[in-house]
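Entry 0007
Protein: S1 family peptidase
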Amino acid sequence: MNKRLRTGAIATAGVGAVAAAAILLPNANASTDQPAALKTLSAHSATQLATSLKADLGDQSAGWYLDSSNGHLVMNVLSEDDAASVKAKGAVAKVVQNSMTALKSGAKTLRDNASVPGTAWSIDPKTNKIVVVADRTVTGAKMATLTKTTNGMGEGMVTVKRSQGEFKRYDGGDAGSAAGGAAGSAAGGAGDAAGGAGDAAGGAGDAAGGAGDAAGGAGDGGAGGGGQAAGPIGGSAIFGGNARCSLGFNVTVKGAPAFLTAGHCGNDSKTWTADQGGSQPLGTVSDSKFPKTDFALVTYDDANAQPQSAVDLQNGSTQEITKAAEAAVGMKVQRSGSTTGLSDGTVTGLDATVNYGNGDIVNGLIQTDVCAEPGDSGGAMFSEDSAVGLTSGGSGDCTSGGETFFQPVTDALKATGAEIGAGGGGAGGGDNGGDNGAAGGNGAGGGDAGAGNAGAGNAGAGNAGAGNAGAGNAGAGNAGAGAGDPGAGAGAEDPGAGAQDPGAAGGDALN
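Output (structure tokens):
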């Protein structure tokens, strides 16, 4: 009997052990097989994680993108084993067909065999394909060449789309300078033409907080902020010879102040000013690369200049820029330019090549759906406080949309040895009246130029100065030499020369 009891006890203990194992085994498996919780990441954090995963995957990496709707990093991989390691790091794994090595090889095939003017292509990690765009000029023999090459690459590697526009650089010529740039003292200071304000309206006069002509006309340095020598900021209009472009980002090179813009702008002119007439010199080109890449470094003529490291948001406020960042497909970005102001959109492709014609082929660009027009070239593309790209060109406009391409800022910084930021420079305006009051706009004559909402600062002019004046949103804006009374503004509510109707400033005048 005791023996039977002992046997029963042993059997009962065995059943208990099996039951315990049944409970423990799923948990043990979960610790090794189940993915970590998906991480919600900023674009910067996603880039850091993707860089780490790319190093781990090596040749098995197939690109990545940011699912910006929920902040998840999506990593393309070639096998389920690689997918497990990606999931363990908190990213989404997507098993795809084409490796990044294969996609880059396909892009080289296009460069070698289908370098047709009016075409562009980029690697799209969302579709795991090369996306080719042919503009409206690609017809006949040119289209036949493109089709033959892409057909030989196979459907699994490449997709071909058509654009209704025409690929072009976005620097403005003579017509663009006069129209969209709103240049000269007549634009920044509103002058006699801005709603009949006369010199007193745009410049707020000597009586309007002491701003004098410097307030509406963006002073000696334009609209970049206070400091000893205020200068323009990202998105400000710049003029060189017969061309008008936009400033990208203020930088320093071995402590000296400079700014980045597009390389094709740097090729247009060696010297650049803040006004079309050339009375407000800014700097001299020290390095310019176009084609192949598209960036230029312009050194400020005033070695003591302290331009603000910021971008004009075209509404009287600015975005501080503290660093540069690599672009990521899916990244939400904004672009500031002197023709069309502020636009936003999403990065859609990387390592893009665009053929503008006449041998002007640029590689390694960022492709987006952000609109732009002539005169916006060189302007700042940014994501929050990070510099991302310099406007190069594209197709379409801000009415019909289209594709746009940007030079990566990180590549330009590396090539020139420049660093983001150019010293102090306050926000301008405030109680400093005319000295810092010019900080609000784009400098003398760009886009929403003039004194922004600065004018004479808070020293008696209220929203005085040129308002959002300049030919972009021309007219006296909220101008007037008096704080509550528009005084000589002759149209603080009535835009005068065309605050709502930009007159000649539109994109058509620049085309």
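Curator remark: The first strand starts at residue 64 and ends at 67. Residues 335 and 415 are 22 Å apart (CA to CA).
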